[in-house]
Amino acid sequence: MPNFCAAPNCTRKSTQSDLAFFRFPRDPERCRIWVENCRRADLEAKTADQLNKHYRLCAKHFDPAMVCKTSPYRTVLKDTAIPTIFDLTSHLKNPHTRHRKRIKELTEDDIRRMKERRLAAEQRSSKKEEESPNINNAEPQLSAEEKEYRDYLRSSFEILLLLGKQGIPLTVDKVSETEFKPNNFQALLDYSMNAGDAALRKRFSTMAVNTEYLSSTQLNQLLDVCENTVREEMLMENLIREELLDFLPFGDGDECGLVEQLEAQLTERWGLSMEDCRGQAHKACGTSTIKMKAVAVLLMEKYKFALHVPCSHMALNIHLANNLPFPNVQVVMETLRRITKFFEMPSTQAELEKAIGTHHQKNEDKATALKEACGCRWTEQHNVFDVLLDVLPPLLLCMDNVRDNDDGLFTSATVASAYSIAEILADFEFIVTVVILKNVLTFTRAFGRNLQGETLDVFSAANSLTAVLHSLNEVNDNIDVYHEFWYEEAISLASLMEIPVSIPRLFLRKQRSIDAGEIQAELYFKEYVTIPVIRGIMQEVEDMFSDTHLKALKCLSLVPAVMGHMKFNTTEENYADIYRNDLPNPDTLPAELHCWRIKWKHRGKEVRLPTTIHETLQLPDVKFFPNVNSFLKVLSTLPVLKLESGSDDTATKRLQAYLDNTPVKNWHKSLAMLHVNSHVKHDLDVMVDKYCRLYPEDEGEGEEPAEEEPVEEDAAAAN
Fold first, then answer.
1. Residue ranges of the domains in the chain?
2. pTM beyond cutoff 0.70
3. Is 270 exposed, middle or buried (0-12, 13-18, 19+ CB in 10 A)?
């Protein structure tokens, strides 16, 4: 989203200029002086926090001596900087032009007060200079040794960034513990020295052969500075996109401890405010799901606007099934993940297609359609359970063929994996559970697909939830009838696959231990599968789509294309109160919304209605609707909405690629961060300055710390 200059008669914006844009200061006194110098009467009633959040001035309005360029990518103001350069007369040349930035006419009292404040500021400045006359403002000159040290650090950081960007692991495999084999970082140091890097050669050329150039302490310090610098660059950018900021340990501790750790990371280390959090989504599986749900509930209790919503990267039906805490459902979901991994190899995928052709040899159209359905990550789609039921017989045949391994095409590990998957597929409880999940989640499939579709589809989904819940309630009220049909479907499929109807052995053993009477299979699966699943799904949907969440999604009618679809008969005012505190002028919202509708309703015939939030925010005149602008920005951060920046390359996908392509033993937290965020601009000089400040050269190395734990796949990534 571009930044616009708040100065009168200034039309600069960040997307059309290389100038830096600066927020109004949070300090009320300095902020008041900025407003007075701007001569914007409409800004005087706003608080310093509102001005800091929503308004900026470009660098053209400051004396060049007040602007400091700390790096090629970062420009900052001095702490005492005051804007003094303004064009307050050019609008007089065209008096008929409509000016939205009204210039305040100064009275004699205003001029007198401004002069008094300016004189007082000059006196304070001169007094400070008298108190510290010996301060030399010039930067200290570096000695030759210091320059060499900084050059060495630059080269080291450059190599670490290369390791991260290319996904090169830090460690290397050793034949034995006694063997000396330099890690990849040291190998690249050697390569750079041989290529002519004088700074590295001077520092390490005198070291003995087969010794490490850097201790693990020094290497961890370099990695930590490198990682933190990249993270700071991301936090400073004013862009709406998904970013991976850090990893948090997840395995140990209770939910309260994890919440405290997450809050501390966000607020103390990153300088963010949890009060500004407008959504949270957790992509978890297995037992981690229950823990993350508890974390989400605790966060919502403390921050009511941190809505717990589905993740835009996971199909809603898969998300709902993952959240069910029943062992039989978790077995199905874990089996789906194993199937996904199993068919990543071309040989196993070819075997599946062969099995599909064999099973449906009398129906080529069915075989072709099923091969296409199973071709591309079908286990992550909204209709995953429908496809699973269709492919189940040939899938079991495929696993049996791999187990036989008559041609010797598969490794022993692949054969063992096929054996364990086949045992699960041939279990009657597995078949019943899949049938129940497929039929129950049919009612949420279209809703979930719309929820992750275009903006108009999401708006339609928000208005269709009542119908979804009504359908689920109807199933629950007539559970006997529905279960009878679903159970017959499971019986037919089991008969086709030659799988006997049976009650789980563990349940029968428990029944015998308490001398309970026998139970019929149909009754068992009704009581222990159908009823828990339908009620669990209903509860998950109700919890996930609260009234506040639905109100937020219904405000997508602010997008002009949605507004046009509704014939411009929208009622955002009824839902806008949820984000009232995020708006710069909440009292003028009704009037502004009316003008927003009129603008698009009476547009020219050649004007196309923007269809997404991102497209709407790029409009040059959206700045004249500050409340709408702020509202759309807040909505765009909800994790349930997919990013609309035109790029499908998200931090989640880059992280998953790193985890898939890097052996588990080589996972490294800092290198993973650098790899996922290799697109972020970085300044080596900033890294060098930070390292020199944190770890002076004459400081002792200290004790060797324990080796860093590898990245856990279910580590929490903040967005």
1. 14-130, 143-304+674-719, 343-426, 427-545, 549-636
2. yes
3. middle
